[in-house]
Amino acid sequence: MWEYTDKVKDHFFNPRNVGEIEDADGVGEVGSLACGDALKLTFKLDKNGKIKDARFKTFGCASAIATSSVLTEMIKGMTIEEAAKVTNKDIADYLGGLPEQKMHCSVMGREALEAAIENYRTGGKKKHQLEGKVVCTCFGVTENEIERVIRENNLMTVEEVTNYCKAGGGCGSCKAEIGKIIERVQGEKRKETAMTIPVKGRKLTNIQKIQLIQQTINEQIRPALRAHGGNIELIDVEGNKVIVAFRGMCAQCKMADFTMKDVVEAKLREFVADGLYVEEDSDSALEPHNHRE
Ligand code: FES
């Protein structure tokens, strides 16, 4: 049984804006009944170029209905430029979150919106088409789409990719190729991050220091921990002391002390400041499920 937020339940039991606008300005259709999920989104603009009405028809699970419903609510009042910036994460956040295994519904919502905007911008001529090589033939997912969900959601495992776009969730024969795409995209991201992270050694204000610690955790430390089912949260910074809490597999791992010093502390010293040292949050360490004997 999935854990759904109250907002997901509300939009599932009372979906808003169900149907289709007859003389729509934009029409987006994605998915297919054969793959288990399909969504048709239509919108109409007012004279100022803002979306005044949006409607949907969907075939899918509770999350597909809730994400489609909330998407129509979100985009009403937006200009096309604003609607074009809506991400799958925005849709999931608006619902107060979705179960990981259902994130593909938020991706389907974003795809339908993009298809409808493209249809509008081309004067109704262009219909949504798959771009790039199809990697997962079971669900018709292309390399471009897989690369995009990895990049936008910082996905590290094939299982996560399946959750976000279904690729790999059928016969499984595409899993090795998905794994290679993850490696390539994450490698490119690491290089980009290395180029954007500020050079250590400059004088930082307290706020800049905390922001840089958070950025280093997000970009340099968390991806490595998530690859093994773990996670980390920044709790506080007191002078040179950085207080963190391990989550997931890291919270039960016998090697946690090693990870704390040789990964977390080492990375923070490398990217932020030499004098930093790391301590585990005492409250988290005392939680019964976090014991590591
Ligand atoms: S080809 Fe991707 S799961 Fe079958």
What is the strand and helix layout of this fold?
Layout: H1 6-13, E1 26-32, E2 37-45, E3 51-59, H2 62-75, H3 80-84, H4 88-94, H5 103-121, E4 134-136, E5 141-142, H6 143-153, H7 158-165, H8 175-196, H9 206-226, E6 230-238, E7 241-248, H10 249-252, H11 256-271, E8 277-280, H12 282-286
Helix pairs in contact: 1-2, 2-5, 4-5, 5-7, 6-8, 9-11
Bound molecules: FE2/S2 (inorganic) cluster.
Give a quick set of tags describing it.
293 residues; alpha+beta; 3-stranded antiparallel β-sheet; 3-stranded mixed β-sheet; 48% helix; binds FE2/S2 (inorganic) cluster
Structure description:
The protein is α+β, with helices and mostly antiparallel strands and 293 residues long. The protein is built from twelve helices and eight strands. A hairpin with a 2-residue loop joins β6 and β7. The longest helix is centred in the middle third of the chain and has 22 residues. The two termini are 32 Å apart. The structure holds FE2/S2 (inorganic) cluster. FE2/S2 (inorganic) cluster binds next to loops. The site of FE2/S2 (inorganic) cluster has 11 residues, from loops.
Summarize the structure.
The chain is of the alpha+beta class and 293 residues long. Helix content is 48%, strand content 17%. Strands 1-2-3 form a 3-stranded antiparallel sheet. It has a 3-stranded mixed sheet with strand order 6-7-8. A two-stranded antiparallel sheet has the order 4-5.
Q: What kind of sheet is the major sheet?
A: 3 strands, antiparallel
Q: In total, how many beta strands?
A: 8
Report the structural category: alpha+beta
Let me know the average pLDDT: 88
Ligands bound, unique: FE2/S2 (inorganic) cluster
Share in β-strands: 15-25%
Task: Please state the overall shape, judged from the principal axes of the Cα atoms.
Answer: elongated
Question: Over all CA atoms, what is the radius of gyration?
Answer: 22 Å
Q: Helical content, roughly?
A: 40-55%
Which residue ranges are poorly predicted, with pLDDT under 50 across at least 5 consecutive positions?
288-293
Order of helices and strands: HEEEHHHHEEHHHHEEHHEH
Number of helices: 12
- Strand order of the biggest β-sheet: 1-2-3
The end-to-end span amounts to 32 Å
